[in-house]
Amino acid sequence: MRKKIAIFILIGWVLLIIGDRVDELRVYQGAQMAMYTIALASIVLLTGYSGQVSLGNGAMMAVGGYGAALTLNNLGTPIWFAFLMAIVTASLFGALLGAAAARVSGPYLAGTTLALAVGLPAIANQFAFLGGEPGLFFDVGFPPERFGDEFTQYKWFFWIASFIALIALFITSNILSSRFGRTWRAIRGNSLAAELCGVHSSRMKVLAFTVSSGLAGLAGAVLAMTISLVAPGAYGLALSFALVTGAVLAGISSLPGVVLGAIILVFIPEISVALADRLGDADKLNNYLPGLIVSVLLILSVIFTPNGPGENLRKHLHKKPAH
Questions:
Q1: What is the domain extent for residue 6?
Q2: Is residue 158 assigned to a domain?
Q3: How does pLDDT run across 126-144, given as a tens digit for each residue?
Q4: What Å distances lie between residue 102 and 36, 199, 206, 229, CA to CA?
């Protein structure tokens, strides 16, 4: 435990140094990477460990984003409490969904969560208190004056997002290495055998859905912070598909791999802009290229590296040399 704490503290210190030495674009991308890291961790926990396939993580992020925005705007609470409410709101919603999801599995569960990803963000348009199509403004405030005039808003976002991501990964890694993680792995491997060993599979699946949803809700609040807005368009179906792609690329059961998946997802728009500039008609291509790149990466990963490049790399590094 002490070694793990020391590693996370070291990583945090390195991130702070990097954030102070790169330009505004890279700092903003760093905050996005932190957001994706948390969101991908939620998929690793749910799918990689408990074996439940969900295509609705974007919807869970929306629940967390709206929960944080309503808390911040209506109660005027500190920002940390708004993030906490994002976790609580999404966890409660996930517990309800998990209770229903425990009755289905495989493609039925994927289809149910896909419908949620399509329908839930659109429902926000029907309620005035959720801001409709324009959404709700989400303002975490300016950075403290003691940081100086050169400490920009984007650096403040990066600091907050990185700190939250490190805490979330630390807690998640401890959960996955505990008896809960081992039980989820047993259920994923053979739920009947787990039941015979005294494991209540349905109850543990609901717990996995609850914890995963809480992580996704936290990621949704971080996304709201980075764009200063909570709106249906920010949590659309494309976000859910992008998260699935990132999780597959990272290795669906590899928690450290979520950083690789986050980096890929952040740089896909930059790659699409570069390609569009080379091919011409950049304005039109920029609307389609990111989604096309995500689709191609997902297909190639499933064909050539079913466990994900990140998971294959981890196994290669941990492979014992032959004697």
A1: 2-317
A2: yes
A3: 778 888 888 888 888 888 8
A4: 26, 14, 6, 33
